[in-house]
Amino acid sequence: MTLQVDDAITLRRAMVATLRDEGLITTDSVAAAMNAVPRHDFAPGEPLEKVYQTSTTLVPKLDARGRQTSVVSASHIQAIQLEQAEVRPGMNVLEIGSGGYNAALIAEIVGPTGSVTTVDIDADIVDRARAGLRRAGYEQVNVVLADAEHGVAQHAPYDRIIVTVGAWDIPPAWLDQLTPDGRIVVPLRFAGITRLIAFDRAPDDPVLTASNYRLGSFVPMQGDGAADEQLIPITPDVGLRLDQNSPLTFDVPALRRALNTTPAESWSGTPFDMPDELELFLLTNGPELPMLHAAQAAVDQSVVNRTVRIGTPALVRGGTFAYRIKRENPQMVSGFETGVIAHGPEAEQVGSELLDMIRAWAGGYYRRGAAHIAYRPNTADTSGLTGWHTTKRHGVLAVAWL
Ligand SMILES: C[S@@+](CC[C@H](N)C(=O)[O-])C[C@H]1O[C@@H](n2cnc3c(N)ncnc32)[C@H](O)[C@@H]1O
């Protein structure tokens, strides 16, 4: 038993050191919390080595179709969100989506003068979170069973709301229950992708502006705020994914024919680097692009490039489509060059249109954090918006490249 505890402490220190080395933990307060909280207390049955890896999710719960509805998140994602939140001692914090571990980390940071509430829609997860918090000695955390679409009014107002489930929108309750200068950290889904965004609010201004955003993904929100994406199959293994509010339509038979043609490749002469930033630029700066997705089988049969496995923005024009690829090129700073592959009768033209977009990003925005993201709730003036924006149920999300 003592050996187990010693092992856990050693593994925990190694986890924190790795997260620091990767630049994901940047403050002493987050490092101290992650060193203090026994993560294994929240993941019964999981091997210690796995518990303290930085990119592993734990104790998944699956629905009837085998999809994950809950996990204890990977520690690298938790580190990113905690750093984004800039939680300080004495704050009142709401965590949306429970597991217990992250709530315990927040409780460590806010200390005895602060308070933490965590809410989950699933009674099993609430029970498990409570048990873990008891085991680890964080019984002061309020654990609530509810649909977080409506927040948790009884412990509001919150200085920070940390959302640990994939949200498609920012419901009014979250803003009503946030202090006037509070911050919401939320994995927001838009244009077929998710970004972990830290939104700040200024007193007397209903508009939320993002202080930073990072790559990351979460299980989707259930309950009143659930949102489905559109999936348009081209073949059983290849499809286009669109936001639920997208009006785009496609000539599927023509695209299916295009998939069977020999594609044309062209190269941009710009480095392949920060693909998540390029992806965001392509999706929020110009014509609306769907995300092209493929099953492993389509990659194995060379129907599509392997970049499509995790999804990539595609420029679709009639029966032609193009998407970005990469190749090794030692002359590029990153050692790789971005290119384009295009299928269909207009492959050359559509490929060159996408190359121009890639070069525009490389020429003007080749850095982290170049996008300016803002969310205007419906209580603000949402008329007259220019630039890329998408209308959600409770507000408008806008992305500008300045
Ligand atoms: C990734 S897990 C949370 C992980 C947790 N924060 C931790 O400590 O690692 C996401 C959770 O959100 C919950 N959830 C989904 N929709 C919800 C909703 N509408 N309200 C509250 N919880 C929800 C799921 O049941 C799931 O347990």
From TrEMBL:
Q: What is its EC number?
A: 2.1.1.77
Transmembrane portions of the chain: none
Swiss-Prot/TrEMBL GO biological process terms = methylation
One GO term describing the cellular component: cytoplasm
Q: Which Pfam families match?
A: PCMT (PF01135)
Query: By its UniProt entry, which InterPro entries does this protein fall under?
Result: Methyltran_FxLD, PCMT, SAM-dependent_MTases_sf
Q: Where in the cell is it found?
A: Cytoplasm
> What is the predominant subcellular site recorded for this chain?
cytoplasm
Keywords tagged on the record: Cytoplasm, Methyltransferase, S-adenosyl-L-methionine, Transferase
Q: What class of enzyme is it?
A: transferase
- GO MF annotations in UniProt: protein-L-isoaspartate (D-aspartate) O-methyltransferase activity
- Family indicated by similarity: Belongs to the methyltransferase superfamily. L-isoaspartyl/D-aspartyl protein methyltransferase family.
**Which NCBIfam families does this entry report, sorted A to Z?**
methyltran_FxLD (TIGR04364)
What is this protein called in UniProt?
Answer: Protein-L-isoaspartate O-methyltransferase
Source organism (scientific name): Micromonospora inyonensis
Q: What is the lineage of its organism?
A: Bacteria, Bacillati, Actinomycetota, Actinomycetes, Micromonosporales
